[in-house]
Amino acid sequence: MIYEFMRLILFFDLPMHTKNEIRIYNKFRKYLIQNGYLMMQFSVYCKLFPNREAAVKHIQILKRNIPTKGLVHIMMITEKQYERIEILVGNQSRQEKLAGSKAYVKL
């Protein structure tokens, strides 16, 4: 088995017009953080996995925990691809500075 670190990048846009929609948004955001996701930008989170198989298994779990309304996209890339991200404006987030691009996440 080849161990190539994979990174899931999750993009979401959820409705936030009512108190219930805001509650659902906050619950989903907390779910992501509690499950090891790091915020890259507002509504863009990422998580590192030791291999493709672990990432695919996690996607199945994630599908059972996403809100029913809104838009949620996920993209799987290798850690090598992730390391080539260029920041065009601004700086690394505080979390990115603390964790670094080669951070390990407990599974």
UniProtKB/TrEMBL annotation:
Database matches in InterPro entries: CRISPR_associated_Cas2, Virulence_VapD/CRISPR_Cas2
EC number: 3.1.-.-
Amino-acid positions noted as binding Mg(2+) in the UniProt annotation, renumbered to this chain: 13
Keywords: Antiviral defense, Endonuclease, Hydrolase, Magnesium, Metal-binding, Nuclease
Superkingdom of this protein's organism: Bacteria
Record-level GO BP terms: defense response to virus; maintenance of CRISPR repeat elements
Entry cofactors: Mg(2+)
Function: CRISPR (clustered regularly interspaced short palindromic repeat), is an adaptive immune system that provides protection against mobile genetic elements (viruses, transposable elements and conjugative plasmids). CRISPR clusters contain sequences complementary to antecedent mobile elements and target invading nucleic acids. CRISPR clusters are transcribed and processed into CRISPR RNA (crRNA). Functions as a ssRNA-specific endoribonuclease. Involved in the integration of spacer DNA into the CRISPR cassette.
Subunit structure: Homodimer, forms a heterotetramer with a Cas1 homodimer.
Family to which the UniProt record says this protein belongs: Belongs to the CRISPR-associated endoribonuclease Cas2 protein family.
Protein name in UniProt: CRISPR-associated endoribonuclease Cas2
Organism: Amedibacillus dolichus
Gene (UniProt): cas2
